[in-house]
Each structure stands twice: as structure tokens, then as C-alpha cells.
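Q: My labmate handed me this sequence with no annotations at all. I'd like to see what the chain might look like in three dimensions before we decide whether it's worth expressing. Could you predict it?
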Amino acid sequence: TPELLPSQLTAAKTGKLSVVGTVVGPIVGDSHSSSGLRFGLKDITKKSRVVHVVYRGDAPPPLFAVGRNVVVGGIYENGSVTGSSILTKCPSKYTASPPKA
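A: Here is what I predict for the chain of 101 residues:
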């Protein structure tokens, strides 16, 4: 499954994929409802357009929140992602270690 940033999504990239990004609010809805849990994703390292996500499935991970880096697996079409899985990235694993003296 291709893993892309929100800025890399185009009409040509439709289909099953994973999107890596930072959660943008507001977060509304419920993952168990017919309308799903709705939020946005933007690139982690730079300003980018926000891709809208509708997630239906298990409850999102406990650390899921605005500003958190996540990987959403699902289908991209018509400019939005219909998600079926969410994985929260642990920020401490992705920050540079302080230089050793």
C-alpha cells in the first residue's frame, strides 16, 4: 500500500493507500456512526493543503488528537480519504536525539 503525504495526493492517486500527516481540527462525529469521525490531515513538516478524512471503524487510538501525527489507511477518491485504520505515531520516536558531548 503506498504511503503518501497529503501534499502528494492527486486525482491520479485514487485507490487504496495510507496517508501520513498531522491531525487538523475540528474533530467531529463518531467512528461508529454512519457519518463517521471527520477531521483533516496536513503534511507533518510543512504547510500544505488539508485533506479531509472520514473514518469509520474501531475507536481511534487513545493518543489521537489535534496536532498528533498519524497514519490513516483507506481509500482516496474525490479529494478525501475514507479511512478504515488509524495508527498514532509516538512523537518521541521521531525527534532527533540531543548530540552527545
